[in-house]
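ARCHIVE CARD
Drawer: 12
Card no.: 0347
Subject: one protein chain, sequence and derived structure
Cross-reference: see card 0346
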Amino acid sequence: MKTTLTFLIFFLFKIDLIFAQLSLKEIMQGETFVGHLPENQRWSLDGKHIYFDWNNSNELGNTTYEFDGLSKLVTKISPENENRTISYDKNQADFKSQVLSLDGALIEFDKKTKIPKLIFQASESVFNVQRLNDDTKIVFQMENNLFLVASGAQSSIRQITNFKSGDKKNKNSDSTFLMKQQSELFKYVKNKNDKSNWNKTQKSKPLFTFPMEHFLGDGNIEELQIDPFQKFVIVRSTFNQKEVETSVQNFVTANGYTQNFVARGKVSQDEPNQKVAIYSIERDSLIWLDFSNLTNIRSKPKYMDASGNGRFEKDRALFIHPFVFSKTQNMALCDIRSADNKDRWIVLVDLSKATVKEVEHQHDEAWIGGPGISSWNSEIAVLDWLVDGKSFYFQSEESGYSHVYSYNLSSEKKEQLTSGNFEIYAIELSADKKKFYITANKTHPGNRGFYHFEIATKKWIPIFEDNGFFDVQISPNEKELAIRFSNSNSPWELYFAKNVPNEKMVQITHSTTEKFKQYQWRKPEVIQIPASDGVGVYARIYEPTAEKKNGAAVLFVHGAGYLQNAHNYWSNYYREYMFHNLLTDLGYTVLDVDYRASEGYGRDYRTAIYRHMGGRDLLDFVDAKSYLVKKKGIDSNRVGIYGGSYGGFITLMGLLTTPNEFACGAALRSVTDWAHYNHEYTSNILNYPETDEIAYRQSSPIYFAQNLKNPLVMLHGMVDDNVQFQDVVRLSQRFIELGKKDWDLAVYPIESHGFKEAYSWYDEYRRIFELFEKNLLRIKN
């Protein structure tokens, strides 16, 4: 009893002591405590102003602000003028005006006067606005068809495609025999048919033709594209397999009744398949492209056939990205992915002949991905013309890191332009085609510097490359920069600078609150931990002073898997960052690990979890614990682990597959069974549950529930439509059936995957804090 009382007094004393500096309740208020940070900076049409989203007056949400490049003044845009803050579109750089869909109408803005002009408005919304080589013409889409706006002497607005969903219905539903018989037997029927046929011959020829109907089947028509010469339209159609949707329940509603809403399906081998056709406007004809000659289009992956020689009976399903047209020739580039994401092809399409030529093939036995490439099949990768119609550039992980390559169509040769143990995160070709503007982690995996890269000499010119992240938007004339910058203990602010080396940034916004600025926030050191397989694993470490150090440690697991958090800029996990400062003040050592599968470290690091999530990634945390024990004097029996989403999953795998390693764990919004997660993410890493059951079994915590030994708290939003509440319910039932103790489940009835309410955040982290204090902060007699 005496020991318990001593512990409680000491516990309360410590909380009061630390909360004099940081209050858990305050830091969980998020932006209300930190400040509302600027987002989405973009240049105005004329390049004289920077627009950005901000909330500098503590309103209920962000509004648009304007920075004047001449006066250097920041002005809040009123709601009635919001639609006049049109941002610059590089794709319309060569035109005197800029056209866009605004509130469903087609609007044209003069770049000099910025005066809007209404071009077209109807009850149906206008979208997918496109420009042609002829600047007097504009194309837009309504529903499943394109319309052409022509100005000048022959001004008109007309429909140029006539696409229909489904199949053409046979009007002659009766048998031809019966129809012929009726005409033979009955004079009345014969006369009626003769009159009908005669009427058809008497119709006058229309002054203007209208395109014929073309039926596209049961697929979902993606956004249509028209080539710059107004000759061809590209039709991409997605044919979905029948997906079984899930349902999420909302228990706290305005009307008092429980409401169900439809959510995503679950991972399955039933992949969607895309097809693409070229429609000739002149010939009014439609030709579907043939991709059957793509390299290895029928090859089975090695997990299905270890010999590597296995073949499917049919072509694999494909995802076909939008075409990248030449402005000088009737050709286009296209990025194609296999639906299983093992292969990527870049092809050259001859629009006139409707033929396809493969120019680049990439294969990854794990899955295609990386910066500028993307592991999401439908997300557009970097692919554009370098010299129009002659050469193009793209990104590839061929070297082990995502770098820029060029391909010459005449010589049919590929050249690697950038190289090194770093990755290219953003790339933009200059107007004179002589250099790239590049964002890369060239100096350190945890930095994002901004550079000019001279294509002819391959020379790098640093513009900004200090520790931190330079998120750059280039002005229309390419002479100025709008920059969002942060470092590890300073949140994002907006800056202005000239686009030249050694330039000093001018700060535009000051967003942090006085309360936030009162505390001396740590700049966690980014270290490398030697993993058991010899790889150096990056991590952020928070170390207390020697007099406060209590010998306990907490390991934090970031979410998403492919995400970086051991970096030198302001974290998306900023509440966790502040929580780690609080823990460090209490004497804990905190380690935030960029485990295997994290972003920023190349292809092998990215794919190290293939077919076994909770394998090599979890071992990085076991190795991190070993490092803390050996190098930082941490008690091996007092190391806890926590994280959300993928981080919650790793926490569960840690407690269930290595039950003697971690003293306790907190798993937030965790995947417990990968067969119940979404298709796009899961199928890349674990293939399909129908074809790779082993991968799903060895990667899912629910199969290891019997091993629970140490205290666990699970926390989950009940309206989570990403990692659904069902996940944690199913694991809870397993624990109950197995008679497991020392586990708790906290549910949040109004929260989805990303919590919104400060009181939910506080309740969640109060429970996590109490878990660590109870199980890691042991006082010796």
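Annotation on reverse: Residues 304 and 691 are 8 Å apart (CA to CA). Confidence is low (pLDDT under 50) at residues 15-20.
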